[in-house]
Amino acid sequence: MPHLPSRTLEGENEVGHLNLILITSIHPITPINTLEEMYKPLLCLFLLFTLNAHAVTVETTNNLNVYYPDFTRIDLVCGKMPKTSEKDVEFCCEAAFTGELLTEFKHMNIADNHITGGVMKKGYRCKANTGGFLWRKGRWKFVRKVDYPTTANGWSMGFCQLLIVKDGKARPLSTRMKSRRNIFRALCEKNGRLCIIETKRVLTYESFVRCLTGYKVTHALYLDMGSGWNYAWYRDDSGRVKERFPESKSSFSFPFRTNWITFYKK
Q1: How far apart are CA 211 and CA 241, in angstroms?
Q2: Chain centre distance of CA 203
Q3: How far apart are CA 54 and CA 257, in angstroms?
Q4: Which of the ends of the chain has fewer CB neighbours closer than 10 A, N or C?
Q5: How far apart are CA 196 and CA 68, in angstroms?
Q6: Measured between alpha carbons, how far is 50 from 18 in angstroms, rounded to an integer?
Q7: What is the helix (H) or strand (E) element at residue 21, kind and residue range?
Q8: What pTM value is reported for the model?
Q9: If we measure between CA atoms, which residue out of 232, 180, 186, 193 comes closest to residue 213?
Q10: How far apart are CA 170 and CA 197, in angstroms?
C-alpha cells in the first residue's frame, strides 16, 4: 500500500501533523512516471490525523519523574489554576511561593515580582528566593535574583524562586535546607529542553539536589510543593489528563494557591 510520509499541515504547524493513508487502484497499462501520476486514479482517500497537540513525554530514573512538555507558549497563570477542560494546556503546577492563606487573590501575596501575560506584577519581598526564570517566544533564561529584571521588558512570563542548579553546578546549600524532607519539584533545563522534575518519594533536599546533578541538568529552579501545593496535571500523548497528587485537592491549603507555571501548545 503506497504511503506518503507525514508532513506538517500548512497553517497548523503548532497543532499537529497529518498522515495520509491512500488506497489506490491503478490501471495495469498506465505508466507511472511520477508520484503525482501514481495517485491520479485514486479510488479511496482516508485521512488519518495524528494530533500531537497535547504531548508530555515522561522519563523516569530510580528517584525521579521527568516531564518534557512539547509546548509553544508558557505563562504564569495567577489567581485560578487552569482547568483540565482547557484543551490547549499541556502541563501546569504551582510555581512561586504564596505568602499568606488569603481568601482573596492578590499579586502582592506571590513571592517577589512576577510577569504574567507580559505584564510585571509586584509581589512581596522574599529573601529565600535566589533566582528566577523568564520566557518569551523563542527564548528562556534562568537567572540569579540580582539579574532578575525590574520591568517586563519584552518577557512574556517570569517568576522568582530558589535557584538550585546554575550552569551545571549546584548552588550552595544551607544547613537548614539540607535535611528538609519532602517530595520536591523543580523547573529544569537539560540538553536545551525544558522539563519539570519531581521526586518519586520523600527525600532530603540534599538528596534531591544530588539527583538533579546526577541527571545532568544545566539549570534548576525550585517549584512550590507541600500538601495542597503539590497538585499538578498534564496531558499525555493521547490527550488524556493525568493528575499528580490528586489527594491534595482535599487539603486545607488547596484553595489558597496563587500561581501556576503553565505550558501551552498554542
Answers
A1: 27
A2: 23
A3: 25
A4: N
A5: 7
A6: 6
A7: strand 17-24
A8: 0.80
A9: 186
A10: 15
Rounded mean pLDDT for each run of 10 residues along the chain, 266 residues in total? 32 33 37 45 32 72 97 97 96 97 97 98 97 97 98 97 98 91 97 97 97 98 94 93 96 96 92
Read off the amino acid at residue 133: F
Question: What is d(CA 262, CA 248) in angstroms, rounded to the nearest whole number?
Answer: 19
Q: Residue 193 carries which side chain, given as an amino acid letter?
A: R
Residue 46 in grid coordinates: 482516508
Cell of residue 248, nine digits: 491534595
Query: Quick one: cell of 253?
Result: 491549603
48: part of which helix (H) or strand (E)? strand 42-50
Q: Give me 116's grid cell.
A: 504574567
Count of residues making up the chain: 266
DSSP state letters, 191-241:
TTEEEEEEESS-EEHHHHHHHHHHTT-SEEEE---STTTT-EEEE-TTS-E
Q: Is 186 exposed, middle or buried (0-12, 13-18, 19+ CB in 10 A)?
A: buried
Task: Locate 232 and state its grid cell.
Answer: 499538578
